[in-house]
Amino acid sequence: MDVKAIMSNQSIQQLNTQNSSTQQLKETQKTQIQNDNQKKIEQNIQKDEVRNQKKNITEKDLKNALDTVQKKISLLTNSQLKIEVDKDTGKQIVKIVDQESKEVIRQLPPEALLKIAKYIDEITGLLYKNKA
Fold this sequence. Notes:
Blueprint: H1 2-55, H2 59-76, E1 79-85, E2 92-98, E3 104-108, H3 111-131
Antiparallel strand pairs: 1-2, 2-3
C-alpha cells in the first residue's frame, strides 16, 4: 500500500508541476498579448498625431505651395494653374489654362462630371421636396 501511496504522490507532484508550468506559459502569453496591444495602441496614437499634423496645414501654407507650383508650371510650359470652387456643386476645380489663348487645357474634375453632380443634386432636392 505504501508503494501505491508513493506512486500517487509522485503522480500528483508531476501533475502539479505540469499545471504550474502551464500557468506560467499562459501568464507569459497573456503578458505578451498585453505588450503587443500596448504597442499597437501607441502606434495608432502616433499615426493619429501624424494625421493631425497633416490636417493642420494653414491656408497660408496652401497658398505658398500653390504659388510655387504655378511658377514651376509657367516656367516649363506656357500654362497657368488655377484652383476654383464650382458655385453650383461647391466642389474644388483644378484647371490648367493656356496663358495666351486662355483656353482650358485640362480640368479636374471634368466639366461633364460637374454637370452630372449638379443634376444629381437637383434630383435629390426634388425628391426630398416631394416627400415633405
